[in-house]
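Hi F.,

I've been meaning to write this up properly since the lab meeting, where we talked about keeping a consistent format for the predictions we share between groups. The idea is simple: the sequence comes first, exactly as it goes in, then the structure tokens exactly as they come out, then a line or two of notes. No screenshots and no reformatting. I'm using this chain as the first example so we have something concrete to point to.
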Amino acid sequence: MIRLYTDRLQISYGNRLIVKDMKIEIPDKKITTIIGSNGCGKSTLLKAITRIIPHQSGRIILDGESILKQDTKELAKKMAILPQSPESPAGLTVGELVSYGRYPYQKGFGRLTKKDLEVINWALEVTKTADFKHQPVNALSGGQRQRVWIAMALAQETDIIFLDEPTTYLDMAHQLEVLELLQQLNKEQGRTIVMVLHDINQAARFADYIIALKDGQIIKAGTSDEVIDCNVLKEVFQIDAVIGRDPRTDKPICITYNLIKGEEKSEISLTGDH
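Output, unedited:
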């Protein structure tokens, strides 16, 4: 089932075309990961789909209707986004931050209802951040803060959650912790997860569907076996990769790689020395 898709989507910054005639389909209740080199349009795509930035042409369709025609609060009940390296105001407590996720449901003076408080406490419990409820967000470790931001996204009670590089600046253990939490939310609650990741091995391990971008266009989309491929990685990242199998997950894994451009430069340099 496809609830969310784009058709001939084009996004520009000034005169520069970032995303070109993009047609993607986001599988419902699956984990989709977007990979690609810096500046290829990954974050721009997420911002456009969630209506943070405008798109110049084409369509973004959710539940059969353009997102441009949907009420902002109603759209916020369907999609939540965790931006790259989010920051909270100084002194804001964990509970206060998570309560912001209830904004789409508030009316009048915006007082939290009994239902709001129940959802906030549930989101804190699921993300294992309930013990920090009354602590300032900026007093937490990087991994704890990231879980708190995910709790805020969960408090929105959306079916679809977008995350832009949710593992940035985290150590290996906390990266795994965050990704396993997202996988748990997908499997146990059927949440559709769409995230940008830099680590292709993490993408292969956790994603049901991978979209590989280069210069604002899709090079390959499909399963990890279809995308984590020597030829695809060569075109997307300009690397000569050796692909094996993860002994624990049986997913493809990049064992090692060389920079293709670096090798070419080295050969040119050596030739020039003789």
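Notes:
The chain has two domains: 2-78+159-238, 90-157.
The first strand starts at residue 2 and ends at 13.

If this format works for you, I'll send the rest the same way.

G.
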